[in-house]
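seq/struct pair 1
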Amino acid sequence: MTASTRWGEESLRIPRSEPLPADPTGQRLCEIFGHYPWNFIRADLPDDATVKAAWTTVNAYPLRPRVLWNHWQDANQLIGVRFTHDTRYALLDLDAGGDYCTTDGVAQIRAALETIGITRTLLVRSSWSGGLHLYIPFAELVNTFNLAVALKECLKAQGFRLQAGQLEIFPNVKAYGVETFIQYMGHRLPLQPGSGSCLLDDALNPIGDSLARFFWLWDGAAGHQDMDALRHAMKIGRDNHRKKPKRRSHPVESWRQDLDLEITEGWTGYGQTNHLLKTIACYGRVFERLDGQALIDYTLRIALTRPGYEEYCRHQPDIERKVTAWVRAVEHYYWPMGTAPTRDTSHPQGELVLFNQLQAENAQNRIRAAYAELDRTDTLPEQITARAKAIAQAAKVSQQTLYKHLGLWHPEHQEGVIALPASFLALTEARSEAIPKSLEPLENKELHPLEKTMKGGALCAGDLGPDKNSFTPERGVRGDESRFPQEAEPAPYDPDLHEQIQRQIRSLGWSVDVIRQFIADRLGGKRWFDLTEDERFLLLYHLRGLDSLEAREPSDVTY
């Protein structure tokens, strides 16, 4: 049973006149797996059989039949294809280490498939990793989407877990693209030379890797399928899919489906590693009921097998450390489904401290590397402001982060930073520039002489002479002018400006030494007490301008 081809697909098929390979086995390979030539997948065969292949999608040109056969014979590369609107086969992917990658698991799946008319399958080891591909051949073309829905409904109804790392269906039940044509997921071709793929018997023992024998078994299996029962199951499955409410399931089940969808899609771009590791660890913790090392192993195994990992994950050298940090974090915020909540709100940081330390170490290492590279190439600016900007851009850190580690780049500082103050402007210094305990504005802003610096003694009532009324404020104690060797009048106090500067400094989390150096670099070597009111406005401008110079460091963990 076939239906009319949807938009965008008919034009993508290879013309029937496309020349096939001369080899009869190659012709059969192209007839079955070369039905849809676009957006095929390929990977170089890894030298180490334990390393996962780095698959990429090729969408610049179609995979012509003779090229497909040539690529399949190349022992240095792996090749894979996608489904189109109709198909002559399906396959089930049983991941190595999963619950169903066993003789008993295969037997249970085969028994479930018989309920919808699939009575014969071909069992193939997919690669050296030990995963299994269970091929389902048909003697005629069937609708791809209806087949995907029928397989999903069949296996879910009998309790199989359709998820990454366990059991996946090809073709998958893909979303409908309104404006963009959405591709089915691609799969590798069977029995490629050097790939570790081979035929297996029911006891999972290898029985050869002959492609000719594979197609002989294929024809025998295809001829024994109950197509009437399968077509009936496909119609019921499609009707159920159309009538199914989009969001009427239990919230927990909806959450599980959402997590599984994100994990199945894997990486589709850069900057997704933290989100995906948290999602995988959360799924393993809540729905797989794992913890400790078992959860670490699960998260690592699933992450390494997701699409796009090799292409887009930039944390591959330290992936185990990042997985461990995320697992420790997830264990403090989630608990196995059906058990009592175990979240400890009295220690909100928990194991996140480890992750934050890793992030801080990475930032420091980037600052050191940037400083060394600028110094090596004689492009390290002498002026502090220009130097800070150059290092921040090269290290890809914010100005806030850079000023937290003055000892790594500032010529006047050594390694180390003192503890963060509660408020910079509320601290006292050891020298004469101490800040008064009270910063409230004085009621009288006239000059007030300091007693210890007066040249004469304090004026007393008895010193005014017999005519006490002869003393006037205009007359000094010694001389006609009130001149004293005292400190200059401080800058006018603006409580609103003071509070804004305080708030900005608190948000940066800087130490006293860092703030003092920042003021000196921006305002000609001056200190806080030397600043005029205009200069303090300028200081606030510089503090607020840090965000525009360089983006802040991303949050380590968000919930």
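seq/struct pair 2
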Amino acid sequence: MSAKKAKRYTVTAALPYANGPVHIGHLAGVYVPADIFTRFKRSKGDDVVFVCGSDEHGVPITIRAKKEGITPQEVVDKYHFIIKEAFRDFGISFDIYSRTSSETHAKTAAEYFKNLYEKGIFSEQVSEQYYDEENKQFLADRYITGTCPKCQKEGAYGDQCEACGSTLSATELIDPKSAISGNKPVMKETKHWYLPLDKFEPWLKEWILEGHKEWKSNVYGQCKSWLDAGLMPRAVTRDLDWGVPVPVKDAEGKVLYVWFDAPIGYISATKDWASENGKDWETYWKDEETELVHFIGKDNIVFHCIIFPSMLKADGSYILPENVPANEFLNLEGNKISTSRNWAVWLHEYLEDLPGKQDVLRYMLCANAPETKDNDFTWKDFQARNNSELVAIFGNFVNRAAVLTNKYYGGEVPALGELTDFDKEVLETLRNLPGKVAKSIEAYRFREALAHMMDAARLGNKYLADTEPWKLIKTDEQRVKTIMNISLQIVANLSVLAEPFLPFTSEKLAKMLALPELKWEDAGRSDLVAEGTKIGKAELLFEKIEDSVVEKQLQKLEDTKKANELANAPALPQKEETTFDDFMKMDLRIGRIVEAEKVKKSKKLLKLRVDTGMDVRTVMSGIAQYYEPDEVIGQKVTLLANLAPRKIMGVESQGMILMAEDKDGTLAFLFPEKDVSEGSTIS
């Protein structure tokens, strides 16, 4: 099926889940390529609506709410705004960033379900699911934990083992437990509505496997795998108290399953945008002249290529996606990005550490995008690309062109003189570049498109290096004027060609050259900057990233790795068995530290005076690396009072302070939950 020549586009970007901030994997996989495509289409003059929003329903939201002791709404409110701000900071140019907890979405999703329900699309099925008797609720897969049947690790979820990565079903878990109560769940019958994907299978095979062979190989291959394996009915509702209520009778305590609910968020977001901008939302979802394009990561391929199209087909009034250019995953320093293990580069933290370098990250994530296979982000590569490409090629050319123009002509664009054959060759190359960039973007080959854009900067650099105007200025000023005019025309072209990729840099170039608003059709021209135009002073577009910056980021990751290893380290083994009689020989009492001082020539010891309720005695304690003397005065402690006295550093110690030692060796005091008097015994 050949691509339609539509001039109207509905572009969607996968709804990020609102239970945490976004990281570079999200940006590389979905949002940078979607933004490049959208900015390019707008520059071409096409009618584009670019929609996204927070996915705010589902079990992970409720789990985080329980952990933090707040409501699910408070969780999504918190992260919705963090995510929205991060996208804005990185120039992701959504026309609207909505959310699935909005009234518009609840109404739209409910109406969509009811329409399919009344058409008789769904089937009703009764099945047995795990149920927590103490909390009187059915358990979603993520609310069930147990031992993984594949790797035997404890703590696996009912849908996945994070230790070995295996996809599971809750009934496969060994010794399953409710994550809410800790009790063993029971099986209980429940009724749900199912979308009969098996009935859509013949149509899907024709529509995808025959009609969309032009889709990316990773997308087409995954779809073929699913379809070859055969599709099964899939529940569209679940037992949960957080989500869009199922709008039919006998559905109390049931909500729309998040996979059904979330993609409808694209439609509800478009409705809100249209309402705010005096547009007709149906034009962007029901007009055959509109192309629908979904930007997603590979974990969402089945939902956007098989399930959501089946939902759209079932309704019958919506257009179907023309393309779903899904990316693979981006790894970080050789390991899979993991939010639970904090193995990520969070966007808000990136800007704290590298302020003003949004375009550097956009460039890196596009140049290294996981378009057909998983790729790896490394800080060394980040540094190398910045220093050897953005600084040495792009920034160097623009800076030289601006510096020389200001030096020779007071910042005024000189007149173009007679062109040499070399000049004509350079301008011909420049004329051809926009078409190359456009062709690559249209084919969703954004890495290739970025390389073509950088060819304009390389062209400018080589042109200046070959013509050497700094040498000619004393002998052929007219020739230098022509060279500088052409150089500035290349810079102006860069402002257009770079805009989809590096919007902040493009804006700086346009301001520096006092350019009018330019569109894609202007790119390739050699008259974008008028003779006599006063340009701005040269400024560094990019700066070299030093080793210390990279080392700081690598140290953060190393600290994270150590923290994860510590968290997963086994507890110390139990000591040899003792007897009750031996234990009863110990006189454990509560005391209070009344004096404390450091011990000379010792880094570990503090000399303490402890009120035991019987007396005030001296105790030497190895806690100086964790506590200052002033911190511990007044501290209640647990004391082994009848330990035989012994001299330590020349001081007689009359007892031992009991401490808890963590896996990393840090120490913490043991003291009673309630305030008790000195001398209270422990039994």
